[in-house]
Amino acid sequence: MGKKRIGLLGCGAMGTRIARAIDSGEVDGVLERVHDAEPEKARALAGSLARRPTVVENHHLLSSGPGVDLVVEAASQDAVRSAALSVIQNRKDMVVMSVGALLDEPVYEVLADACAQFGRTIYLPSGAVAGLDALRAVRGELESVTLTTTKHPRSLAGAPGLAGSGIDLGGAGGPTTVFEGDAAAAVRSFPANVNVAALLALAGAGAAATSVRIVADPAAERNSHRIDARGRFGEIAVEVRNVPDPGNPRTSRLAILSAIATLRGVCSGGGSVRVGT
Ligand SMILES: NC(=O)c1ccc[n+]([C@@H]2O[C@H](COP(=O)([O-])OP(=O)(O)OC[C@H]3O[C@@H](n4cnc5c(N)ncnc54)[C@H](O)[C@@H]3O)[C@@H](O)[C@H]2O)c1
User: Fold this and answer.
1) Is 44 helix (H, G, I), strand (E, B) or coil?
2) C-alpha 10 – ligand 1 centre gap (Å)
3) Measured from the CB, is residue 132 less than 6 Å from ligand 1?
4) 171 pLDDT band (50/70/90 cuts)?
5) Where in the sequence numbering do the catalytic residues fall?
6) What percentage of the chain has pLDDT greater than the value 90?
7) Looking at the chain, which residues constitute the CATH 3.30.360.10 domain(s)?
8) What is the pTM of this model?
9) Are 231 and 143 in contact (CB under 8 A)?
């Protein structure tokens, strides 16, 4: 079997790093097409690569026809809502990073049904968090799952949930809890920040049973996520302290590395030793 041919939706901080990982051979695939709502970003990225992909004008062209096997979304929840179904209907697999979109039940159900109907797979990398393997394993025994996310206020800037909170994005004041609620509400209020909440809900106990607390801390130099889960299996406590990506402080370096690791696995085919659940 030849190398997997990849279409990339979103050419921002994460998309750029993914494209470079494919271009350098770190991922054993070929980047065939790229698209971004801001076409100059897609053109600049394509022009910076050794093997130039085609810049396509809309997301339909990313997955249409036989030239692409897999589409990687690194754009936004809106992009998932408008593009994912056509990717699956075009009989391509998909890697989705804006996982928050899938906490909308109708969206999830339509995509899950389409995957079953067309025999395709949507991959959701572990992103900015660790421990999803264990949560998946114990999902039938979970009694509670709590996520506490702590970020510098500037990493939360622009979130609808911050509007009117009076939080100083410049960093004055002490740590402040800016959100407490379930994962579905967290994803609506902080759509670009808590994909982790969506991943925990999908891997574990569901959105309504996953509690989320978001803390804006001017002293925080890392984006940290602490997961506390308990149930008949015992207890799980996991904390990751992520370095923000210089290209987009809302995105953690680990999330980008996780996307690349997933792609490496998807592109590697069989004939290998696989570690982890
Ligand atoms: N799963 C995780 O753990 C995790 C972690 C970090 C980021 N993310 C998500 O990954 C996505 C990409 O992150 P990033 O840091 O690269 O963001 P970014 O803002 O740096 O780049 C996003 C790019 O996508 C483009 N875009 C947005 N909506 C689009 C649409 N509908 N169609 C076409 N292009 C569109 C933008 O123009 C931009 O160039 C975000 O949605 C982010 O929330 C997920």
Assistant:
1) helix
2) 6
3) no
4) low
5) 225
6) 74
7) 132-242
8) 0.94
9) yes
